[in-house]
């Protein structure tokens, strides 16, 4: 596990450097809408963009199993998910899961989720999500969307604690 964390830290630094280097290749403005998508949760059950329609605001946390800050904030996210303000929900997208046959990363994600008591909905990325996921320059990144998938405010980049995320949720709910 220690070796994986050291390798992960190197990968994160490399990812940030490469992302900064190629950032100019992207359009000037990030997308305003999270695209319609079809994917699966970590147990292989179907999940679509309709998941957003269930609440006024959805907080989407983008993370990876090799990312130490992502893993560190997971217990706080689990606590937040159990006490989200009315009209809001939390969904995770595990960026390094490469589909339903990626048993190693799915297993790692499930272990992190279990150890962190972060039992909120976790889904696999899909190609449909690329217009938004292509804008992710570092992880964890958190995006907020309304019931129609409209992106509310700027992306939140970097680790936060439960109180900081709760304040973000409340602020965005008030702005809607």
Q: How would you describe the overall organization of this protein?
A:
This protein has 176 residues and is α/β, with parallel strands linked by helices. The protein has one domain: 3-Layer(aba) Sandwich (Glutaredoxin). Helices cover 39% and strands 18% of the residues. The strands form two sheets. It has a five-stranded mixed β-sheet with strand order 5-4-3-6-7, covered by helices on one side. β4 (88-94), α3 (103-116) and β5 (121-123) form a beta-alpha-beta unit. The N and C termini lie far apart (42 Å).
Low-pLDDT stretches: 6-26
DSSP strand content: 15-25%
For the largest sheet, list the strands in their spatial order: 5-4-3-6-7
Overall mean pLDDT stands at: 86
Shape: globular
């Amino acid at each position: 596990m220690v070796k994986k964390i050291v390798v992960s830290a190197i990968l994160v630094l490399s990812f940030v450097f490469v992302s900064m280097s190629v950032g100019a290749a992207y359009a000037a403005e990030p997308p305003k809408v999270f695209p319609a998508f079809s994917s699966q949760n970590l147990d292989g059950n179907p999940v679509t963009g309709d998941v957003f329609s269930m609440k006024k605001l959805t907080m989407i946390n983008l993370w990876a199993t090799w990312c130490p800050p992502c893993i560190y904030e997971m217990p706080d996210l689990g606590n937040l998910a159990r006490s989200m303000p009315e009209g809001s929900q939390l969904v995770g997208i595990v960026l390094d899961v490469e589909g339903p046959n990626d048993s190693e990363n799915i297993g790692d994600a499930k272990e992190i989720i279990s150890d962190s008591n972060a039992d909120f909905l976790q889904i696999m990325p899909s190609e449909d999500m690329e217009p938004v996921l292509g804008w992710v320059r570092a992880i964890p990144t958190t995006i907020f969307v309304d019931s129609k998938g409209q992106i509310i405010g700027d992306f939140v980049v970097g680790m936060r604690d439960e109180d900081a995320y709760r304040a973000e949720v409340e602020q965005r709910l008030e702005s809607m």
